[in-house]
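Is this the right way to post structure tokens for a design question? Let me know if I should format differently. Anyway, here goes:
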């Protein structure tokens, strides 16, 4: 079964919570989904082409789901053709779209006629509340009410609310609803005068409205999708003021449900469904006048116990009546969707696997260490997509602790394929195994699979397990480094390569949409996932395994052990040290530029290349160096700086990407400007003398403790606990 969704836009609340949050459930049920948005182009021509594509695709889908698409309602011919071409149409709306928001009067006659046509000819109409359903039933008897739902596994209360600061009264909403908040300005002024509190307004307008500039205790924050949950959890009280009008009675109260889901009390106007959502005096208060607004807000600001009690009641009410799971069951029933495969409750007794796509000969770094450590700590199985047995073979266990950890006899390890010795065939073989080999379906025997790094097209081949992605970075050549990647391809082939890149990005996005949980390794990775893939995620910074890296003294060399490729700026590093013959550099890694490096440093007595070294030798090199050099192009996180700091070594880094989150300039290292030149690096090396490096030792050690193993495993376990998995219990077995 396939479904085509036509929505307003991916950042519109109605699209996000009435369509997009159901996509993972639909995919798990084996239903392929295509999403077309009304805001997909900057120009009218681009939007027109986009909508024509949606129209032509309609006959290929089992169902077309319209979620308030303006383009459909506003164009007679488009509407008529869509209903002629589509096999089945479902119309969903959660606002009084038939009324003018400002006057509450019916919209133009032409619009009402087109809306009536859509309502009459839809096989099913879904309304957000009874008020809207009553309007729809004038045209169609097949109308169902499904409230906008909250994912209570995602929107969770803060454990132990914010103590030691004044309470924050919060409002979150779009600019179109700001007018309702501004009607509350007299109340806000009186409450601020009488109470020690703050107001926090979160909206999709970039700057604070002038009408709210009368007090510096009214804080304003531009809305960001990835920060929405954190913003809500920073509130102590949630408010939803509304005038009583025909239009506002069509509101579905989702703002209140978000507040209650994160465990905070609410104060709302008794308009429309608000009366049914808020139990007055139990989950919050209904305020009919400015006087009641002031009294209720003052009461809540002054009584933390009352806030806690009402917040807990509100959370229970949302879990009982407005959870995503209950709404999903209603939606599945109304759309006559097939049942998803059963997903039993997981526990410490269930089978869990960590999946890592490739263990190859050229890389043994943080990306390879992490899945091993997760497997070892939580006592799960480890599954490798492909493995180079020459570098990772069991016979190497005595010489390499990495390999020894991989082949632990007390824990399971399985690989789907072995790496080919033929370079060109190697990638083709991997892709064939990941996409077609029956052995990939062995992962269905697990209840949970944690993908570390690249999901390698595996998620679409397995249906039983819950799936978690720990994302190190979205593929750089498909996202922020796409243009650099294409420039290296000859002109005649560049257009074809561009099409392949677009296709691969779509496949990658489809894979991660199948995940039940996406975890990013840094704020930078989180932003990139949202910008290029439209995927929200939560951040758990990777662990620094500091017990393997210690301060051993200080010799006379600087160290670089980043992978040898263009994005690590190895050319710039070598060029800088060739101009500083008195400064020594050791390079301890491998990668595509290995042969270039070996040729480039011939005759350079101050640059030594030792190749890919064992974990033990790397620890010795790191423990004795003056400082580490790590200047990648907009690195997502980068565990290298944290490993250096764990050994008491400062970092010469760059003001880009994840390094801005880890290295403190002039305290735990030195950050050279973004897009650096050779001169920038030379100045940094000269400035970071051995004496200055030694003086930074204690600051580096303190900084590295922020990324300790214990904190990482605790945060990872807490994040996955929302899926019903008690990883902490497994670690104690």
């Amino acid at each position: 079964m396939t479904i085509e969704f036509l929505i307003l836009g991916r950042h519109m609340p109605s699209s996000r919570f009435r369509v997009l949050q159901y996509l993972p459930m639909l995919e798990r049920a084996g239903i392929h989904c295509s999403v077309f948005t009304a805001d997909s182009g900057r120009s009218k021509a681009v939007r027109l082409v986009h909508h024509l594509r949606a129209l032509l695709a309609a006959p290929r889908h089992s169902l077309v789901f319209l979620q308030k698409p303006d383009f459909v309602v506003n164009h007679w011919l488009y509407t008529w053709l869509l209903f002629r071409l589509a096999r089945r149409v479902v119309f969903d709306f959660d606002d009084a779209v038939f009324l003018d928001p400002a006057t509450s009067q019916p919209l133009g006659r032409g619009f009402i006629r087109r809306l009536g046509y859509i309502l009459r000819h839809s096989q099913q109409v879904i309304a957000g509340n009874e008020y809207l359903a009553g309007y729809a039933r004038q045209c169609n008897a097949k109308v169902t009410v499904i409230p906008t739902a909250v994912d209570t596994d995602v929107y969770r209360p803060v454990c132990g609310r914010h103590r030691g600061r004044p309470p924050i009264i919060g409002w979150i909403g779009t600019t179109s609803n700001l007018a309702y908040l501004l009607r509350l300005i007299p109340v806000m002024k009186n409450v601020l005068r009488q109470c020690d509190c703050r107001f926090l307004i979160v909206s999709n307008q970039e700057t604070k409205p002038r009408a709210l500039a009368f007090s510096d205790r009214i804080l304003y924050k531009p809305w960001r999708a990835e920060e929405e949950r954190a913003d809500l959890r920073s509130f102590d009280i949630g408010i939803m003021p509304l005038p009583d009008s025909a239009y506002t009675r069509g509101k579905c109260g989702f703002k209140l449900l978000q507040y209650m889901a994160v465990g905070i009390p609410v104060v709302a106007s008794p308009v429309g469904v608000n009366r049914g959502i808020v139990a007055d005096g139990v989950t919050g208060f209904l305020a009919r006048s400015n006087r009641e607004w002031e009294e209720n807000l003052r009461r809540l600001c002054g009584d933390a116990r009352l806030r806690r009690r009402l917040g807990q009641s509100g959370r229970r009410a949302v879990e009982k009546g407005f959870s995503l799971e209950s709404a999903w069951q209603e939606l599945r029933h109304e759309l006559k969707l097939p049942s998803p495969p059963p997903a039993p409750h997981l526990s410490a007794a269930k089978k869990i696997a960590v999946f890592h796509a490739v263990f190859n000969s050229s890389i043994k770094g943080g990306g390879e260490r992490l899945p091993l450590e997760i497997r070892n700590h939580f006592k799960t199985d480890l599954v490798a997509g492909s493995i180079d047995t020459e570098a990772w073979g069991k016979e190497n266990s005595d010489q390499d602790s990495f390999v020894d950890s991989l082949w632990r006899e007390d824990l399971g390890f399985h690989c789907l394929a072995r790496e080919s010795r033929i370079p060109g065939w190697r990638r083709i073989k991997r892709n064939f195994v990941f996409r077609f080999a029956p052995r990939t379906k062995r992962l269905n025997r697990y209840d949970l699979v944690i993908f570390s790094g690249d999901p390698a097209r595996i998620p679409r081949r397995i249906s039983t397990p819950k799936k978690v992605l720990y994302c190190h970075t979205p593929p750089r050549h498909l996202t922020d480094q796409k243009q650099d990647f294409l420039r290296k391809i000859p002109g005649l082939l560049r257009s074809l390569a561009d099409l392949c890149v677009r296709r691969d990005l779509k496949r990658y996005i489809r894979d991660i949409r199948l995940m039940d949980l996406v975890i990013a390794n840094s704020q930078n990775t989180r932003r990139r996932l949202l910008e290029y893939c439209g995927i929200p995620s939560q951040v758990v910074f990777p662990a620094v395994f500091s017990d393997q890296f210690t301060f051993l003294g200080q010799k006379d060399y600087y160290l670089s052990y980043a992978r040898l490729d263009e994005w690590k700026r190895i050319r710039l590093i070598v060029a800088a040290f060739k101009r500083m013959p008195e400064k020594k550099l050791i390079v301890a890694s491998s990668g595509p530029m290995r042969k270039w490096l070996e040729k480039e440093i011939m005759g350079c007595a101050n640059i030594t290349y030792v190749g890919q070294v064992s974990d033990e030798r790397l620890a010795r090199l790191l423990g004795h160096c003056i400082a580490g050099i790590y200047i990648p192009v907009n690195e997502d996180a980068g565990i290298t700086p944290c490993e250096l700091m764990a050994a008491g070594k400062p970092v010469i880094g760059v003001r880009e990407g994840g390094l801005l989150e880890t290295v403190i300039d002039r305290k735990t290292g030195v950050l050279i400007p973004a897009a650096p030149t050779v001169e920038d690096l030379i100045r940094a090396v000269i400035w970071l003398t051995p004496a200055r490096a030694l003086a930074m030792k204690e600051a580096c050690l303190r900084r590295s403790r922020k990324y300790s193993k214990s904190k990482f495993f605790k945060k990872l376990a807490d994040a996955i606990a929302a899926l019903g998995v008690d990883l902490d219990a497994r670690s104690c077995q």
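Format looks fine. Someone answered above. Worth noting: The first strand starts at residue 2 and ends at 7. The CA atoms of residues 420 and 427 lie 8 Å apart.
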